[in-house]
Amino acid sequence: MNEKGLITLTSQFSLEKTMNYIETLLKKEGFHIFTIIDHSINAKKHGRNLNPTQLIIFGNPKTGGTGLMQENQTIGIDLPAKILVWSDNKGTTHITYNDMQWIANRHYLTDKNRDAINELNKKISEICTKVSQYITENQ
Known about the structure:
Layout: E1 6-11, H1 15-28, E2 32-38, H2 39-45, E3 53-59, H3 65-71, E4 81-87, E5 93-98, H4 100-106, H5 114-133
Antiparallel strand pairs: 1-5, 2-3, 3-4, 4-5
């Protein structure tokens, strides 16, 4: 785990292809996509330049976030979960997400929700790793 709680992987593919694959896998795992924010388009609307940067916000209130917020509502500042897909100045696409254990520690969650945190961390990590390596179910 990074000291700031962020994990970044490099994708071999374009931002658009990476985002599409993430969205597909999240839905397959039962996550609800709340919204996608395109930071670069929003920047452009205000006369600013920003490399392609999109944020996908997702969750599953039944199995994740609600239980965590019942223990400590302040975790709601970090939920729903998010994955940032962004391109650097060289055009390389990156995937960045929060380590859920770091977030749990930040909000002083107890072992009561350890299984939910571990499962959420595992699913997000697996999805981002699959996407970064473009591992399909058929391989």
